Amino acid sequence: MASSYSPGNCTADTDSRVLPQVIKVSMCLILALGLPLNGLGLWVFCCRLRRWTETRVYMANLVAADFLLLLSLPGALLGREQGAREGPLCRVLQSFYYVNTYVSMGLITAIAVDRYTALRFPLRARAWRSPRRAALTCLALWLLVSGAVALWASLLPADENFCFGRCHTRDTRTLAFSLLFFFLLLLVLSFCSGQVLWHLLRERTRASPQEAGRILKALRVVAANLATFVLCFLPLHVALMAKLVAKWTEATDPTIQHIADFVRVAARVANANCCLDAISYYFVATEFQEEVGAILRMPWPFRGRMRGAPVGDPSDRGVREAAAMESNAEGAAHKALQQVAQGPTDPPQGNSFPFSTASMISSLPAHSVTLDL
């Protein structure tokens, strides 16, 4: 089929092919699965779990970013329809899409850094880490990404396309910045996750059977989180890199069209991360399982209460478990302090984690792509 590609419209010669229909079906499935799951997650994290921790702050922001990203996807569906025109609403939805995509990646990386810090420097982390500082980190990330997107959109010429499905949605500088930001996050995430995995593997060889089981769970979580991030976001940025190279080399129209199709497919794979995050909340976070399970078992008029206890009551099992996990963390830190006080001042050789890595593991909540460590 002859190409009818034009710079202003990336979808001109694809509407008669199967790919656009596959894209629409996949987006509808992502919306149908992601909206209720992330809506439930947002409600549980913000309304049911009253005790805020550092990781819960990150997770609540992450589920909010995923939920807002999903709300922008209908704009992508409408923006690719024949005869669709760019307007203020499409620009807002496109901005929402960019902001929440990169905020989500940044939050996943922040959770990995928080996890690495808590395990690698347990004593210092108790002074560094706090829900307030986690909230400030999230706020800074939201402002940084939102400001970058707003600045870029304001600098575009009036006749420049800034909507879904348009070839000029990202210029060369924006593509380069997106790639730099992503690969920086990937580098940090890979380092933190790799260090945690390495230390957990070493600790597992000398742990008791009970602790070995908890360490194995943590290993699976960290590995799954890293793999999910790579599988969901790396294809999109490889596609964007190919698009950047095509711009620099002035590739032929058929090549540009194939790259545009690659970008569209990879973007849907990246959008699927919203669903995987929400599923991870349930399978990894024990408190999330308790809350959701209890809510689903209760008759509808009584779902505002759980096991006869008011929301946020200290008798709630989730709150008691959180208190127990904090006690475990304090006990591990106390043992480490005793060892420091009784032993030499030189740094320990080999594993630099505290006395019980499993105790520290059990004290750290989850993420999705990064959840429960």
UniProtKB/TrEMBL annotation:
GO cellular component: plasma membrane
GO molecular function, one term: G protein-coupled receptor activity
Domain G-protein coupled receptors family 1 profile residue range list: 37-281
Transmembrane segments: 22-45, 57-76, 96-113, 134-155, 175-201, 222-242
GO biological process: phospholipase C-activating G protein-coupled receptor signaling pathway; positive regulation of Rho protein signal transduction
Any Pfam family: 7tm_1
Region called Disordered, residue ranges: 333-356
Gene3D superfamilies associated with the record: Rhodopsin 7-helix transmembrane proteins
Cellular location(s): Cell membrane
Listed SUPFAM superfamilies: Family A G protein-coupled receptor-like (SSF81321)
InterPro entries recorded: GPCR_Rhodpsn (IPR000276), GPCR_Rhodpsn_7TM (IPR017452)
Membrane topology value: Multi-pass membrane protein
Domain of life where this protein originates: Eukaryota
Keywords, sorted A to Z: Cell membrane, G-protein coupled receptor, Glycoprotein, Membrane, Receptor, Transducer, Transmembrane, Transmembrane helix
PANTHER family on file: G-PROTEIN COUPLED RECEPTOR (PTHR24232), G-PROTEIN COUPLED RECEPTORS FAMILY 1 PROFILE DOMAIN-CONTAINING PROTEIN (PTHR24232:SF103)
Family: Belongs to the G-protein coupled receptor 1 family.
Protein name: G-protein coupled receptor 35
Species the sequence originates in: Ursus maritimus (Polar bear)
Lineage: Eukaryota, Metazoa, Chordata, Craniata, Vertebrata
